[in-house]
């Protein structure tokens, strides 16, 4: 007879005490790990292509007027995407869609999906048209100091108008991703962002080569490439969606209860995300007033730190969201506790060593990836220092990606909202106090500090609202992770000394030295952690061994 875990005495309305089989809980955790691994592979492909995309920008435009303008212009549809589309819409849609899929028939579920796709295609198109019309005042508000450089504001406005329709395609792609994730299909939607980067690179470089022949700056071609990438990210998911049995039927029912539920769930989420966007707006405003190139340095560094965020935080968040939504639909808080504790352990296990590695090897990594063409040695130093400060908040940023879906699942969406608005206050205070002395570095430092404060707040509130989770397991795991990370860090510090000449040598020498340090550091970390005993790592090793063990 299976052991059971007795789960009682929690105070979430609608959830009831029940016996939850431990075996099933472990199966759920392993299922999330497998789904996260699947997503992680796809996200790795996307992030690598994303780095190649940034390498193309660095080589062609360096850090200056053209790329500063592109970053701010792209930030405007990106802000709207996070505010109205991919963030709030995806989380709210998955919650309602999973409930329909669990408790209603496929007919009602597919009808809801068609109505949601139609509604948001129309709504986001109208928002994009309004943004195109208001592009000039929006750019002036976002980056007022661009007007001090001749032609910089005009170029940013032009790029903004080209890229705003990206909002429609990328938001619809997020809805399709939510549908596929709820149906248990993770790989294709996670790979879709690779096609965005591929379209941006191939289409953008090709058009950047052509644009000067038509009297346009080359960066305009990269803006059109971004639009091509957005179309590809949506289109590549449609065959997989059709394979689930879904057939799109254009329809618009504003009184549809499912659509109304999604909009009501989106309301607090949008308010919460608006706080995040206000923070981005504040950071962009401050950065535009710093030395030319500051916006570029911040963007290059954050793009790089997004690699582990995407691999660990986003992958786990995508894998967790439909699982938590199903547990919520079944009113099974016990399974949610197990899922959350296991996911947090995995996040800490993966992000803490990544943080140490990025801080210790920031210079060699930036030099290897970006110091080509128009990207200078001075740009390398500025970007590496920025990367080190961003890396401090890496684990918190990734953990927050895991924590927020749990609040959606238990219908406590106001707490991420509160956390986001607290982050605005702390962000303004920290930047204002430090920017005169540290310039753009103060923005990276403030970002990490606010992520850490968000993590503490969200973890505390979630522990309280869920009636606790396995804190002892988390603390024990954290101690082991910190020991393994410290040993790995010592190796990276000592190992970089004899490799110093190669780390600044030619491309081949840099590649060998940097990757040797990364791979040996990862191996040392993994071995030490395995020896100390980490359940999630033990499970992964067992599965790998079983693949190679002869079958009877």
At a glance:
Helices cover 81% and strands 1% of the residues. It has 22 helices and two strands. It has helices at 22-61, 65-84, 86-103, 106-133, 135-142, 152-163, 166-182, 187-210, 218-235, 238-243, 257-288, 294-329, 333-360, 362-370, 377-392, 394-409, 414-438, 440-465, 471-495, 500-503, 507-532, 535-548; strands at residues 4-7, 18-21.
Account of the 3D structure:
- The protein is an all-alpha fold and 552 residues long.
- Helix content is 81%, strand content 1%.
- Strands 1-2 form a two-stranded antiparallel sheet.
- α8 runs antiparallel to α9.
- The longest helix has 40 residues, at 22-61.
- It is globular and about 65 Å long.
What is the averaged pLDDT score?
A: 79
Cα end-to-end separation: 26 Å
Our estimate of the beta-strand percent is under 5%
Q: What does the largest sheet look like? A: 2 strands, antiparallel
Shape summary: globular
Structural class: mainly alpha
List the uncertain runs: 1-29
The radius of gyration over CA amounts to: 23 Å
Output the strand order for the largest sheet.
Answer: 1-2
Pattern of helices and strands: EEHHHHHHHHHHHHHHHHHHHHHH
| Count of DSSP H/I helices | 22
Fraction in helix: over 70%
- Number-wise, the strands total 2
Features:
about 550 residues, globular, 22 helices, disordered N terminus, mainly alpha, two-stranded antiparallel ribbon, single chain
Q: Which secondary structure elements does this structure contain, and how are they paired or packed?
A:
Blueprint: E1 4-7, E2 18-21, H1 22-61, H2 65-84, H3 86-103, H4 106-133, H5 135-142, H6 152-163, H7 166-182, H8 187-210, H9 218-235, H10 238-243, H11 257-288, H12 294-329, H13 333-360, H14 362-370, H15 377-392, H16 394-409, H17 414-438, H18 440-465, H19 471-495, H20 500-503, H21 507-532, H22 535-548
Antiparallel strand pairs: 1-2
């Amino acid at each position: 007879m299976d052991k059971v875990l007795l789960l009682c005495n929690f105070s979430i309305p609608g959830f009831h005490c029940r016996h939850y089989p431990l075996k099933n809980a472990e199966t759920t955790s392993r299922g999330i790990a497998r789904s996260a691994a699947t997503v992680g592979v796809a996200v790795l492909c996307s992030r690598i292509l994303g780095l190649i995309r940034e390498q193309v920008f660095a080589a062609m435009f360096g850090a200056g007027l053209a790329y500063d303008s592109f970053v701010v212009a792209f930030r405007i549809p990106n802000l709207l995407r996070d505010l109205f589309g991919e963030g709030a819409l995806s989380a709210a849609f998955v919650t309602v869609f999973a409930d329909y899929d669990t408790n209603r028939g496929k007919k009602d579920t597919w009808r809801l999906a068609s109505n949601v796709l139609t509604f948001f295609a129309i709504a986001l198109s109208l928002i994009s048209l309004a943004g195109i019309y208001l592009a000039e005042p929006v750019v002036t508000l976002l980056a007022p100091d661009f007007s001090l450089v001749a032609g910089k504001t005009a170029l940013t406005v032009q790029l903004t108008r080209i890229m705003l329709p990206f909002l429609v395609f990328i938001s619809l792609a997020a809805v399709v991703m939510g549908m596929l994730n709820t149906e248990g299909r993770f790989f294709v939607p996670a790979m879709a962002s690779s096609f965005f980067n591929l379209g941006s690179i191939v289409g953008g470089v090709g058009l950047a080569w052509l644009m000067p022949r038509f009297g346009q700056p080359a960066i305009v071609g990269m803006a059109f490439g971004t639009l091509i990438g957005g179309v590809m990210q949506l289109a590549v998911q449609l065959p997989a969606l059709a394979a689930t049995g879904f057939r799109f039927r254009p329809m618009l029912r504003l009184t549809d209860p499912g659509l109304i539920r999604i909009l009501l769930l989106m309301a607090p989420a949008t308010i919460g995300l608006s706080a995040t966007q206000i923070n981005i707006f504040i950071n962009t405003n401050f950065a535009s007033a710093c030395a030319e190139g500051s916006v570029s340095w911040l963007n290059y560094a954050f793009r790089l730190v997004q690699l582990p965020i995407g691999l660990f935080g986003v992958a786990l968040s995508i894998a967790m969201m439909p699982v938590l939504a199903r547990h919520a639909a079944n009113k099974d808080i016990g399974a949610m506790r197990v899922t959350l504790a296991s996911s947090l352990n995995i996040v800490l296990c993966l992000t803490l060593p990544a943080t140490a590695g990025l801080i210790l090897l920031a210079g060699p990594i930036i030099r290897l990836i970006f110091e080509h063409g128009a990207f200078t040695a001075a740009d390398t130093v500025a970007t590496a220092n920025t990367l080190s400060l961003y890396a401090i908040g890496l684990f918190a940023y990734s953990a927050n990606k895991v924590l927020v879906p749990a609040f959606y699942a238990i219908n406590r969406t106001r707490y991420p909202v509160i956390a986001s608005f607290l982050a605005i206050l702390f962000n303004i205070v920290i930047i204002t106090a430090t920017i005169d002395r540290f310039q753009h570095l103060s923005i990276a430092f403030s970002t990490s500090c606010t992520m850490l404060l968000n993590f503490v707040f969200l973890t505390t509130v979630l522990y309280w609202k869920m009636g606790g989770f396995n804190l002892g397991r988390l603390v024990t795991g954290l101690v082991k992770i910190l020991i393994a990370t410290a040993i790995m860090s010592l190796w990276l510090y000592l190992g970089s000394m004899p490799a110093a000449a190669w780390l600044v040598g030619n491309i081949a020498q840099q590649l060998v030295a940097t990757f040797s340090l990364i791979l040996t550091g990862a191996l040392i970390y993994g071995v030490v952690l395995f020896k100390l005993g980490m359940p999630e790592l033990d499970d992964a090793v067992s599965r790998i061994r079983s693949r190679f063990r002869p079958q009877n």
